Amino acid sequence: xxxxxxxxxxxxxxxxxxxxxxxxxxxxxxxxxxxxxxxxxxxxxxxxxxxxxxxxxxxxxxxxxxxxxxxxxxxxxxxxxxxxxxxxxxxxxxxxxxxxxxxxxxxxxxxxxxxxxxxxxxxxxxxxxxxxxxxxxxxxxxxxxxxxxxxxxxxxxxxxxxxxxxxxxxxxxxxxxxxxxxxxxxxxxxxxxxxxxxxxxxxxxxxxxxxxxxxxxxxxxxxxxxxxxxxxxxxxxxxxxxxxxxxxxxxxxxxxxxxxxxxxxxxxxxxxxxxxxxxxxxxxxxxxxxxxxxxxxxxxxxxxxxxxxxxxxxxxxxxxxxxxx
Length: 325
Hints:
With 325 residues, the chain is an alpha/beta fold. It has helices at 3-24, 44-53, 76-85, 97-106, 147-157, 175-189, 201-214, 225-229, 231-240, 250-254, 265-280, 302-308, 314-319; strands at 28-33, 63-68, 90-94, 112-116, 136-140, 163-168, 192-197, 219-221, 245-247, 259-262, 297-301, 322-324. Strands 7-6-8-9-10-11-12 form a seven-stranded mixed beta sheet, with helices on both faces. A five-stranded parallel beta sheet has the order 2-1-3-4-5, sandwiched between helices.
């Protein structure tokens, strides 16, 4: 054997274990969420269903590494960096723009599939919906763009009201756009708004104390992952102060909230699972169009309405996609 060939063999032998592991080990998905594990219990199985449709099952031919920010946006950067250093084969970033931005900042090469709450083009996350470019794609659930619609539905619920409260997390990246949208909608329908900031548990308590003190007839919760992690707390405070509320996801209504309008997150998570499977099979995020929802749903909890002594107008009942009795 020539010395040059011997060196190649030695080099190949040394490199083989790493190459073998890279080729034969199960792929790893880093799952980065702004939310909490418990509060996400309804939607994570939908993500698994999407993966299953693509032929993947956690623990069988793929490993999922979960990282939960618990509604604390300042934790996302470190969590994303941790996943990128592991390294993972791809990152699924859910819970809106903060998660997607953290993943994008952590890596320019690892594929990312994300759930957006805003227009991802306006947010600067993708180049276009049809050809996202870069290493990121996903689905936009448009949650943050539906604030005016929710305000209009709230006005139909209590048509005599002249003032509403808006519970809004001012630290959420979409907060400025949300506030502008609801203020324009309020002017259009002739109502005043009390904006109540809520970026901590204490501020949530203070917001509802203000609603009670000011005797505001109803409130809406602006779309925000942090406020979703406090779903049960918010629903309980609304019940304690006997005030009707409009929410952005069905989870609130199932938990006892009065009314919600938006997309079903389970559908979004399932689609993300399907996209994740396609990426694992070799598709590039740059070539996968950003999906958009085609279905929006209005939910009403009649049991909660009865507790509040509130009669739901017939027009809203007719519009409702689901009524909980």
